[in-house]
Design a protein that fits this description.
The chain has a single domain, classed as Rossmann fold, CATH 3.40.50. The chain is 43% helix and 12% strand. The protein contains 8 helices and 7 strands, in the order βαβααβααβαβαββα. Helix 1 (31-41) packs across helix 7 (189-211), helix 2 crosses helix 7 and helix 7 (189-211) packs across helix 8. It is globular, with a radius of gyration of 17 Å. The chain binds zinc ion. Zinc ion (ZN) binds at residues 215-217, 219, 229-230, 233, 235-236.
Amino acid sequence: MDAPAGSAASPMTAEEGIVADGALVLFSGGQDSTTCLAWALERFARVETLGFDYGQRHRVELDARQKLRPALSALDPRWAARLGEDHTLSLDALAAVSDTALTRDVEISMGANGLPNTFVPGRNILFLTFAAALAYRRGLRHIVGGMCETDFSGYPDCRDDTIKAVQVALNLGMDSRFVLHTPLMWIDKAQTWNLAAQLGGTALVDLIVEETHTCYLGERGARHDWGHGCGTCPACHLRAEGYRRFAATRS
Ligand code: ZN
């Protein structure tokens, strides 16, 4: 678990270990961001969620968000009390400047630069910038995202150094003290499943299996033990492999 600078200075409420400042979670409806939302609900007195609509080829992920929020609230009355507003921002401009497999109907492949063509250049920098602008307006100090350097796909905007640089830039540019949290940065997919189990037990793991969406192709498809998806794209492979290793530790 990372220990973001500045979090120790946040005021605590009467509730043991709960940070009184609010948090904004980048919430796509996938496995990672759902785990991050549960992580935030366990820590912050008020948690709002943000989703981006940027012409994803698959809208199933955006639909999953709407099921997951009330389902998370139903798991724990403390989480229900802390979960606040949901926000969706349209980023059509991102689709317009991108030429990738996520936004156009083309095969997923590796580009000459060693990055998969699913890469939307600078996507997380844009996401975090919009998140900070919204957090500023909403009075939320903490921003939580599922960026991860461990299962590294080569996405340079998922790197820890990138996130730290963005935090500095946002705080200078907005004269603020945002803290960017990336609870998944140094853990792999099996450990992400395990984190969900620690946060919400079998009920949360089951919810993530059933309702979160990861597949690049946007397929709900067959129900595997790790959830729904095509089962063959890189995202499904990563999720399935992580679940297999997680399940092996539980049996
Ligand atoms: Zn897939």
